[in-house]
Design goal:
By secondary structure, the protein is mainly beta. Helices cover 9% and strands 50% of the residues. The chain has a ten-stranded antiparallel β-sheet, with no helix packed on it. The chain is globular and about 45 Å long.
């Protein structure tokens, strides 16, 4: 009887001390780029206060990002001026296909790694020099201060570019 009680107590303690399953973060909301906290440097990266994003770098200063998230997908509506571009990712690891910023298709796979969402994408472009591919890996997370952090690495024929983009929630 005593042995059963000790075994039961040990099992109860083991269950109670197991880490609880973390809920996946919800990235839903309207976000704007925080230029002061972002690192948007050139081909080899950059630090805070480095190259400021502009129209040629894919982050116009007036851009807003509206994120909607469900259990099965995440969509990002990039709004610049009167234009809107929506990108949708399936969250089950299966392939998603979207239209890229410069045309062409972007094939992506999104997966969870703990409380971080990892999206790996390949975009194929037709250029005057022939077909080119851009491979991008984004790691999206929520910081303790409520900002959304996107660590992006892009590999192009011209080299690798790393960025740390910090977004403030506006709604």
């Amino acid at each position: 009887m005593r042995r059963t009680s000790l075994l039961t107590a040990a099992l109860a303690f083991a269950i109670a001390t197991q880490p609880l399953a973390q809920a996946k973060p919800d990235f839903s909301g309207t976000w704007t780029l925080d230029l002061d906290k972002s690192e948007t440097g050139g081909p080899s990266g950059g630090g805070p206060g480095g190259a400021r994003p502009g129209r040629g770098q894919g982050f116009p200063l007036d851009a807003r990002f509206v994120v909607k998230q469900s259990a099965s997908e995440l969509s990002i509506d990039q709004q610049v001026g009167g234009n809107s571009t929506v990108t949708t990712f399936k969250l089950d690891g299966s392939e998603s296909v979207n239209t890229g910023m410069r045309g062409g298709q972007v094939k992506s796979k999104a997966r969870w790694d703990g409380n971080r969402l990892i999206v790996e994408s390949t975009q194929t472009l037709n250029t005057p020099d022939g077909e080119r591919s851009l491979d991008t890996k984004e790691i999206r997370s929520l910081a303790p201060d409520g900002t959304m952090v996107v660590e992006r690495t892009t590999v192009t024929p011209r080299g690798t570019r790393t960025q740390k983009l910090v977004f403030k929630k506006t709604t």
